[in-house]
Amino acid sequence: MTASLSAAHLDLALQDLPRVFPGPGGAVAVLHEGEVLVRHAWGFANAELRIAFTPRTLFRMCSITKQFTCAAVLDAYPDLSALDADIRARLPNLQQAAPNALHLCHNQSGLRDYWALAMLLGAPAESSFGDIEATRTISAAKTLQFEPGTRYSYCNQNFRLLSDILEARTGRAFADLLRTRIFDRVGMERAFVAADTRAMPDGTQGYEGAPASGFRPAENNILWTGDAGLGASLDDMIAWERHIDATRDDPNSLYQRLTVPVDFADGAPAAYGFGLNRRPEFGRAASGHGGALRGWRSHRIYLPEARLSVVVMFNHLSDAHAAAVSLLAAALGETVQPPTTPAEPDWLGAYLDPPTGLSVRIDRVSAHQVRLRYGHSAERLELQADGSAASGAMRLYRGTDGVWLDRPQDNQTSRLTPLEAGQLDSLRTSGHNVAGLYHCDELDAALTVSDSGGALYGGFSGFLGQGRMEQLDPIGRDVWALPCPRALDHTPPGDWTLAFHRDASNRIEGVQVGCWLARGLKYRRVA
């Protein structure tokens, strides 16, 4: 351990991990200047079979795969425009200009995420979703959420499209391409493409649950490739981190090409590119990514100036990013500053975000925090002395003309439209005549809203099946939330906003449905 890093703090943080992030097992690594400071595993890779979690245990790295997909594509095709026609061909029903390969790499494509769309198409949470279902869902796209290059929105099939196109153009399996172009070159001996999420070859199991309710094996039945298919051990990820540091001064190295600055079409800097987040940690430039599936959580971060890497793997649902940040803080000797005394916010309540059509719900959860329900999960923002609330990714504040939401990573700033809450209790019982059957022409899918004994329920259906009915939650007049507590992917896409609209006679004639991952879908009332 060098003098610039805090050995004592790091040792304490390491000891705390199993207590602060409890679950069946885990593994972590910390590297400095390419040298391994921490290589540690604890607990069980499979609690039922009593298989210990070790640094050689195979693990689902999930969305950490995306940077490897981009690396393989860049290695094979330095000029990514060579793939643009292939992307257009795989979106045969798209009625506007298709995104290009760089848009896919940077999550600026405008495509709606196919895991979110699967829920609108009626997929039960534990149902099978393979190549046939993926191709049909992707190729059916008719419209985009935004013009490519103008915004950011996380979209898993961006990277599936890239890996599928790479396979088709080279005539080689994606697993073989990763092995020869990346794994062998950097020393990732056991890494492979774990496309089938049902089981790992060494018996490693992911778990749902919590200490209070108990842990149970997580059931997954999806097939993925370039979006999230990487399987690797802690030792494999250590090899990747060592390669990153060893080639840090070579502009033509894989990782240096992945971390070049990325912009939006208007020239604004983007905080995501080539499968990597670029948000700073503790005021230092950083790059990394998380990975998640039901029962699996992982995260890796590299700080180039400090030459410091952290890798975290949990085979349960604890927050791997928080664990990685805690190890970074310990290694750097950073301390969390006590919060300042905040001003009392006068902008709590419910709103609509005009650019996305999504509901925005803000409530106070502590003396120093508010909860924002907008993205795919509730987020906590720290109240500031100037009356705003902020996190590393967004800011809420009252301007002279209303309440504003800034999301620089999305390249979006919007003035929120207040919703008239009215009598929410009466909405729960009356529903204002929103019950009915609605059809989405774009998806050829249905939304059923049912008044069941005075309570409103909603559910989606389509070619993937019939989703379960969930009780609707009123947000404001004609705006409801349809909860999505479980989904095919690691976490649900978030509450669906149902924004109903009326005709001249005040009758509900349709509804716009959306979540952060898939928004702006129009349904017309058919019954």
As residue ranges, the low-confidence spans are none
Instruction: Please give the alpha-carbon distance between the first and last residues.
Output: 69 Å
Q: Please estimate the helix content.
A: 10-25%
**Average residue-wise pLDDT:** 94
Number of strands: 32
Q: Tell me the radius of gyration.
A: 23 Å
How would you classify the quaternary structure? single chain
Q: Percent of residues in beta strands?
A: 25-35%
Structural class of the helix and strand makeup? Answer: alpha+beta
How many individual helices? 12
Major β-sheet annotation: 10 strands, antiparallel
Q: Short description, anyone?
A:
With 527 residues, the chain is α+β, with helices and mostly antiparallel strands. Helix 2 packs parallel to helix 7.
What descriptors fit this protein?
527 residues, alpha+beta, ten-stranded antiparallel beta sheet, nine-stranded antiparallel beta sheet, 30% strand, globular
Commentary on this structure:
There is one protein chain. By secondary structure, the protein is of the alpha+beta class. Helices cover 22% and strands 30% of the residues. The chain contains twelve helices and 32 strands. The strands form six sheets. Strands 23, 24, 25, 26, 27, 28, 29, 30, 31 and 32 form a ten-stranded antiparallel β-sheet that branches. Strand 31 and strand 32 form a beta hairpin. It is globular. The relative contact order is 0.14. The mean pLDDT is 94.
